[in-house]
């Protein structure tokens, strides 16, 4: 019950901000994601000042106050907003979004990177009330910006901390950004164009298959925020001041999501600059627009520059830190030969027809060029789809170059030569390209419709009965696949949840309750799987679950009883998530106890089971 009350409080606070933004001219389809990003930026300011918890309560409280204010003014018919109407895509978004959120609310966290950074960062801020400092050894990747963690922390502060709540929060951010794509529609009453965008949203999750939505990784968050930013630039193209504010907010938020967001910001900056120059007055206004663009991007970059300063001044050494010195050292260690091997392996993967990202790029090109050709042959009209295909391919090429640079300069050679996470990283730009293509396609399709006067469009507004039948059939097909593919994502997430039953994080959950007080207790994870120990998965999962910076995993216990006792006595707790035969036998010999699974407190004489 408390979670529902807290969730309602958060929602009312969010609605207070969305109502205020609407009255400032923000599009109804961009208001949700814009309000979320504004709250993240304000919360970031509080966090940098060491007042994270105060910021959470104050931001939500102000939002609730705004919501109450708009309700009171509405009673007196003051400040009311025009009703935008309900459309087919609204029902699609609400119904399937609720179904997905329900599944995520009951999902566990399993992916490695949740425990190496993303989930543990949220847990740290939720229970300590501040950003990690130099003395906080629990957070390993201290250079990673905190935007999504701040947003999720605010949400779970109101709804209660749980893995399901964290996943629902991040999905809310994704779904709000996806809703922004409908801002580009010329006529939102047309079912075909709306269903094409719904199909695009559902289809985009195919290229997110490496991590799905039941993880806190940001590989889908980055492209979908960039998509919302591009949709907003198009929607505000004739309103320069709102356009600049929109770009500044999205650039700032994106750069605070992850260091690799720089590429997506470059795409946004390019489209922003082109839009300013294209829609502005000619002649003397060009220098002014260039100055306006530079100021907007500088303002958007400021929070990230402050974060970089914070990292440099707070942490003496930081993993994945952006610095020329780190890149030079990496290049010196690997040498030219190592870089060439990585580049050769990278090129082979790019040309691999079995690669999902490569298949996605071919699909996007096929759809854009096919639609361009169809409109030229059937309607006999020029359109911008071929230019879009060329532009998207150029974007893919630039991203591949930057991705190769990351493998060569930022990643250890042992991981880089295996192209670790290749499909996950490259899938992000495929998702961005898919949305860009879809937004251009629906604009061109609408411009090709027989009746261009929106007020005259009805069931008889077709050139022929054949074109009407084709429209209806296309709408049914697009709607069918939009529902089916989203349902497939929901059932797929359910399936992965069931398959995760015997993974280490869920075994830890069955052994004991999670710890929520930050501590430095030494915890030994007895894991029979050597791979979990060798890649530090066991240690990271235990660090998250037991909220300690001194948890490690061990698989090999082929030692003498004396050495075994000395090893165990070095720890405060021992957790056995799965039966380990060697550990059980040695415990019988040394402590005269029969232990199988569970959490045990270590004492000089025995292991005491913690219930």
TrEMBL record:
The keyword Oxidoreductase does not apply. The chain crosses the membrane at residues 29-49, 55-76, 88-109, 167-185, 192-211, 217-236, 241-257, 263-279, 291-309, 360-378, 390-409, 429-449, 470-488. It comes from Levilactobacillus zymae. This is ABC transporter permease. Keywords: Membrane, Transmembrane, Transmembrane helix.
């Amino acid at each position: 019950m408390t979670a529902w009350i807290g969730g309602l409080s958060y929602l009312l606070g969010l609605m207070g901000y969305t109502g205020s933004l609407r009255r400032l001219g923000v599009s109804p389809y961009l208001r949700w994601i814009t309000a979320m990003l504004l709250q993240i930026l304000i919360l970031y300011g509080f966090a940098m000042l060491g007042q994270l918890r105060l910021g959470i309560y104050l931001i939500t409280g102000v939002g609730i106050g705004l919501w109450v204010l708009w309700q009171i003014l509405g009673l007196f018919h003051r400040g009311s907003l025009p009703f935008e109407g309900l459309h087919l895509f609204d029902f699609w978004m609400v119904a399937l979004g609720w179904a997905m959120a329900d599944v995520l609310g009951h999902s566990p966290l399993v992916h490695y990177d949740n425990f190496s950074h993303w989930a543990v960062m949220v847990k740290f801020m939720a229970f300590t009330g501040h950003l990690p400092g130099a003395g906080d050894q629990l957070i390993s990747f201290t250079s990673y910006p905190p935007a999504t963690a701040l947003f999720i922390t605010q949400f779970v502060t109101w709804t209660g901390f749980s893995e399901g709540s964290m996943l629902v929060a991040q999905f809310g951010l994704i779904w709000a950004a996806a809703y922004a794509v409908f801002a580009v529609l010329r006529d939102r009453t047309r079912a075909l164009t709306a269903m094409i965008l719904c199909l695009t949203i559902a289809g985009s999750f195919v290229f997110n298959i490496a991590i799905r939505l039941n993880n806190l990784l940001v590989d889908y968050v980055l492209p979908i925020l960039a998509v919302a930013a591009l949709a907003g630039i198009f929607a505000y193209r004739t309103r320069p001041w709102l356009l600049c504010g929109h770009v500044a907010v999205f650039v700032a938020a994106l750069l605070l999501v992850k260091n690799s967001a720089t590429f997506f910001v470059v795409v946004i900056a390019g489209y922003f600059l082109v839009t300013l120059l294209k829609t502005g007055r000619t002649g003397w206004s060009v220098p002014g627009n260039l100055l306006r663009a530079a100021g907007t991007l500088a303002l958007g970059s400021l929070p990230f520059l402050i974060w970089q300063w914070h990292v440099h001044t707070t942490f003496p050494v930081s993993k994945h830190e952006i610095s020329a010195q780190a890149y030079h050292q990496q290049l010196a260690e690997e040498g030219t030969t190592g870089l060439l091997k990585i580049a050769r392996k990278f090129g082979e993967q790019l040309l691999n027809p079995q690669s999902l990202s490569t298949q996605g790029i071919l699909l996007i090109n096929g759809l854009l060029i096919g639609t361009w050709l169809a409109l030229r042959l059937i309607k006999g009209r020029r359109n911008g789809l071929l230019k879009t295909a060329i532009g998207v391919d150029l974007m893919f090429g630039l991203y591949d170059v930057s991705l190769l640079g990351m493998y060569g300069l930022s990643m250890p050679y042992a991981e880089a030569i295996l192209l670790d996470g290749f499909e996950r990283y490259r899938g992000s730009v495929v998702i961005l390209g898919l949305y860009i293509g879809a937004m251009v396609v629906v604009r061109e399709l609408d411009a090709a419709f027989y009746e261009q006067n929106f007020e005259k469009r009805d069931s008889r507004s077709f050139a022929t009965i054949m074109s009407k039948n084709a429209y209806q059939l296309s709408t049914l097909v697009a709607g069918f696949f939009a529902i089916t593919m989203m349902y497939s994502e929901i059932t797929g997430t359910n399936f992965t949840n069931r398959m995760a039953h015997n993974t280490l994080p869920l075994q830890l959950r069955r052994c004991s309750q999670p710890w929520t007080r930050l501590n430095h207790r030494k915890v030994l994870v007895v894991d029979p799987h050597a791979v979990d120990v060798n890649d530090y998965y066991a240690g990271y999962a235990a660090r998250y679950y037991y909220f300690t910076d001194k948890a490690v995993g061990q698989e090999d216990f082929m030692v003498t009883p004396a050495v075994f006792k000395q090893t165990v006595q070095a720890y405060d707790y021992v957790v056995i998530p799965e039966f380990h035969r060697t550990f059980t036998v040695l415990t019988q010999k040394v402590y005269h106890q029969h232990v199988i699974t569970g959490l045990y407190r270590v004492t000089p004489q025995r292991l005491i089971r913690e219930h």
